């Protein structure tokens, strides 16, 4: 198109008043070529924050998670020092003082044998926390190792290791415990053995799938192309990229492990009297519920607190560590 | 011509966690009956949102229509109720989606899926009639033996065939408007040519209007009558395809066209600097101003209106205002300053730096079958050259690159680096040397950087592995230096990858590869995940680095025009074997192998005049299954010249000096 026709079109097709609308905006040098803005193009406006620091910041913004963290800390401290705060032991009976309501001498009252409920509850919480610790250790040591070896070695080894896991998953927990009770006495040792056998399976599977996913990522290939050794790949790439997943999954395993122990003790397959566990206490309280409700209330309150807080904290951690939530 | 669809001042925004994103900001266009409008733009320009707004397919929870009208056949789509919209959707306006792998329901036979859309919109059709009609439509879209195949499920079809089924569903009710959202982006070039041909054929037969959403200007030149160029949620230029391609007025369109390599031009590839703006807070004035070499002062202050250039052609730039300086004169000034492409290197005498002999890589699949990803390729890479390796997906080009680099253990064959063998078992020290001398740039800028590592640590990884830095300060200085070489701000080194755009990440990947001062870089589809304007930036950077640091490239890509631009020689792969290898000019002027001919002919060029007049070699069928490839010449099942002799494997021979080919036609 030639310049003359071009100008003609400009004049005819753009209505005069539309042009005038802009006229007042024009300054003397409005039509000077100033070119691209060099500096602002590649600037990133967001301030720099480290990944774990940012996750922590996001976690503290989550009210539920913060409250859970506080409540859990209180429960843990009480479990540690609670039994020593009065002179009673968990199995010390006193038939004269059976079924006492909470009072200044027995802060949570006494049970049918006159045992101090305060001491027994915190002894029981210790059991629950021991189970939580055990679940964590098993997840971390066996689960993570098993899963990552299976994924990293791959091939036949992976195949065999996965078949083993499938067999373990196939056996229901309860059946396993009952079978173990036939060999061993019911108690904390039996539960420990049962958990050692199956407690880490989910973690192993999760870690395996995550490592498999990472293995084919281009940044792993890039690292290999640069000559990275296997141990370097594991240390520098696989662990940091699976850590979030591991932490979150661990936090979800803990409440379910605590619950399993309490449930087994409640139905009589776990800890036996006079040992105290939250499950045993709840069973006791359940039997005396009509006349002495406080016997059920306190242990139930503690276990609810533990479960809810661990779940809420896990939820908060999942959101905080999820890279997709990063803006 | 009668107007079928008119979009007036459409504004769409999305509520996101970070704030309100103004995805479409005042879009106006018209589609007439029987014509094809192409909407072109980079990712995030709002082209898909516009098309989904027409279909009313945007999520109700997050998307809001701030203002505007979409008038289809006299009624405003934004105002009618859901029930009425359901009647229009699928029967009056239909859509072809980008990814044929996810657009079909995997649990329904394709016949049922086509018939479903007929039954939904025609109350008085019986199931049997609908199925009968489905067969006819499947025949129309070129599905062989449709009567037998209606009962098959989507997984029994190849990608190209699935896209045909998707199109069949879309046209089942004779829609008056067909919206094709990147219909060929997920397909290979030879399949793309088939699908584009099919769309044109359907338009000829049914007279439907098409809105074609794409980022590929070649496809636009091939298909469109009218073009609308979108940038940052606005249409910056629209007109007939000739007007936009031949006399673009908006600097963005102009830059976009210039950033596509043109073999005849002997100059450095034009690249638009910077990245598109963040639509969370769109800039005041012209959104493109910050990237525009010719921006006027007013561009930073006032949003330019659409200036009409002709009855059909208009562009939103202040350069068209009567007071503005004439674009042509400024362009000429700038042009004269622009660097000429360095003269062709004379590499005929250069020594080979990498020699690949009969390289094989087979992957074991389930059972005893093997995927022969690379099956006997032989070639040399000369010192200082760029060897391009092209082919369709699954042809083994990436595997070849990775096997040379020993990321995969080769099944057979030999690889020599500077005359020394680098296959088989190597001493640790030899292996370390190779790792330093040969590096790789990866395709996906999002997956190729560890999300948990700072840029500093990612780039310095090679330095750490080979313990090349004397002190922490030394290491930091090296990284800063590298970042500057690839054109990034050195203050970026303390940031994490997710804070960068695709183009910036690709630069970080290049810096990481350069950290060890390699001699050879294998670039595996380094630009295919990037937008057109960013592609040119990266290609220019690679060329510049080659010149300065005396690098040798193996450039693997499926975008033949870019490979032609950057490469000195090109190798063409098909199903695991090399079919032709020749200097770039010779290959594009005189391709010998029928596959090369078809491949070159299938690539649409961004020039409507050439596209209109050209006869395309359209290959029939799809790539055969690489687990069970054809015996003898692997191309013979699709080759237009196939003969009896092709049952024997052709020999890899030098047909002309430096021009290698494997075909029985060439004696």
UniProtKB/TrEMBL annotation, chain A:
<keyword id="KW-0653">Protein transport</keyword>
<dbReference type="InterPro" id="IPR035906">
    <property type="entry name" value="MetI-like_sf"/>
</dbReference>
<dbReference type="InterPro" id="IPR050366">
    <property type="entry name" value="BP-dependent_transpt_permease"/>
</dbReference>
<keyword id="KW-0813">Transport</keyword>
<dbReference type="GO" id="GO:0015031">
    <property type="term" value="P:protein transport"/>
</dbReference>
<keyword id="KW-1003">Cell membrane</keyword>
<feature type="transmembrane region" description="Helical">
    <location>
        <begin position="164"/>
        <end position="182"/>
    </location>
</feature>
<keyword id="KW-0472">Membrane</keyword>
<feature type="transmembrane region" description="Helical">
    <location>
        <begin position="294"/>
        <end position="314"/>
    </location>
</feature>
<feature type="transmembrane region" description="Helical">
    <location>
        <begin position="65"/>
        <end position="85"/>
    </location>
</feature>
<feature type="domain" description="ABC transmembrane type-1">
    <location>
        <begin position="125"/>
        <end position="314"/>
    </location>
</feature>
<dbReference type="GO" id="GO:0005886">
    <property type="term" value="C:plasma membrane"/>
</dbReference>
<dbReference type="InterPro" id="IPR000515">
    <property type="entry name" value="MetI-like"/>
</dbReference>
<feature type="transmembrane region" description="Helical">
    <location>
        <begin position="188"/>
        <end position="207"/>
    </location>
</feature>
<dbReference type="Pfam" id="PF00528">
    <property type="entry name" value="BPD_transp_1"/>
</dbReference>
<keyword id="KW-0812">Transmembrane</keyword>
<keyword id="KW-1133">Transmembrane helix</keyword>
<comment type="similarity">
    <text>Belongs to the binding-protein-dependent transport system permease family. OppBC subfamily.</text>
</comment>
<dbReference type="GO" id="GO:0015833">
    <property type="term" value="P:peptide transport"/>
</dbReference>
<dbReference type="GO" id="GO:0055085">
    <property type="term" value="P:transmembrane transport"/>
</dbReference>
<feature type="transmembrane region" description="Helical">
    <location>
        <begin position="238"/>
        <end position="258"/>
    </location>
</feature>
<feature type="transmembrane region" description="Helical">
    <location>
        <begin position="127"/>
        <end position="152"/>
    </location>
</feature>
UniProtKB/TrEMBL annotation, chain B:
<dbReference type="InterPro" id="IPR003439">
    <property type="entry name" value="ABC_transporter-like_ATP-bd"/>
</dbReference>
<feature type="domain" description="ABC transporter">
    <location>
        <begin position="354"/>
        <end position="600"/>
    </location>
</feature>
<feature type="domain" description="ABC transporter">
    <location>
        <begin position="7"/>
        <end position="257"/>
    </location>
</feature>
<dbReference type="InterPro" id="IPR017871">
    <property type="entry name" value="ABC_transporter-like_CS"/>
</dbReference>
<dbReference type="GO" id="GO:0005524">
    <property type="term" value="F:ATP binding"/>
</dbReference>
<dbReference type="GO" id="GO:0015833">
    <property type="term" value="P:peptide transport"/>
</dbReference>
<protein>
    <submittedName>
        <fullName>Glutathione import ATP-binding protein GsiA</fullName>
    </submittedName>
</protein>
<dbReference type="InterPro" id="IPR050388">
    <property type="entry name" value="ABC_Ni/Peptide_Import"/>
</dbReference>
<dbReference type="InterPro" id="IPR003593">
    <property type="entry name" value="AAA+_ATPase"/>
</dbReference>
<dbReference type="InterPro" id="IPR013563">
    <property type="entry name" value="Oligopep_ABC_C"/>
</dbReference>
<keyword id="KW-1003">Cell membrane</keyword>
<keyword id="KW-0472">Membrane</keyword>
<keyword id="KW-0067">ATP-binding</keyword>
<keyword id="KW-0813">Transport</keyword>
<dbReference type="InterPro" id="IPR027417">
    <property type="entry name" value="P-loop_NTPase"/>
</dbReference>
<comment type="similarity">
    <text>Belongs to the ABC transporter superfamily.</text>
</comment>
<dbReference type="Pfam" id="PF00005">
    <property type="entry name" value="ABC_tran"/>
</dbReference>
<dbReference type="GO" id="GO:0016887">
    <property type="term" value="F:ATP hydrolysis activity"/>
</dbReference>
<dbReference type="GO" id="GO:0005886">
    <property type="term" value="C:plasma membrane"/>
</dbReference>
<dbReference type="Pfam" id="PF08352">
    <property type="entry name" value="oligo_HPY"/>
</dbReference>
<keyword id="KW-0547">Nucleotide-binding</keyword>
